[in-house]
Amino acid sequence: MNITEDITTVTDFEALMSEDMLEKMHYLHAAIAEIIRLYPALPLDPKVYFSDDVDLPDGCTVKKGDVIAYLPYAMGRMKYIWGEDALDYKPERWLDNNGCFRSESPFKFTAFQAGPRTCLGREFAYRQTKIFSAILLGCFTFKLSDENKVPRYRTTINIQLDGPLDIYVFPRSGLHHSP
């Protein structure tokens, strides 16, 4: 039986999604992590100290009211941290020799914080993004309306596209819209 012949609607594709299938989507998981590495939702992450502390790895003392900021956007592009290909989109950097996803230290990949402040929703965010991505990519193809126009980003408290991203969306071959 050819599974793709049985999928004629988005609902059919969605019905095939299972926990086991999601767990096996190592490359998709790696692709999502790589996107987040290069384009973290929070490009700048400031912290305000509520009491005096010796908190930094170098032993630096911080005082109550001090603001310390780190830049996940810049850190995701640092050759010192990610290697000579730091600017390249390379999902394979997240895969082990068996093609299985392997996470990096949260102190290296800071998008979900680290230590006692690690994001409780990290796994849920990955799961939801994998479901959403698998359905969209499995059921549709996407094409930029102007392939020569390079999308630009605007950095505010979070990273955003600067203006619209005009795309064409086409159902994949053999797929039709559910009523």
What distinguishing features does this structure have?
alpha+beta; globular; 31% helix; two-stranded antiparallel ribbon; two-stranded antiparallel sheet; 179 residues
Describe the structure.
By secondary structure, the protein is an alpha+beta fold. The chain has a single domain (3-171), classed as Cytochrome p450, CATH 1.10.630.10. 31% of the residues lie in helices and 16% in strands. The chain has seven helices and eight strands. It has helices at 3-6, 10-16, 19-23, 26-38, 72-75, 79-82, 122-139, and strands spanning 45-48, 53-54, 61-62, 67-70, 140-144, 153-155, 159-161, 167-171. The strands form four sheets. A two-stranded antiparallel sheet has the order 1-4. It has a two-stranded antiparallel sheet with strand order 2-3. The protein has a two-stranded antiparallel sheet with strand order 5-8. Strand 6 and strand 7 form a beta hairpin.
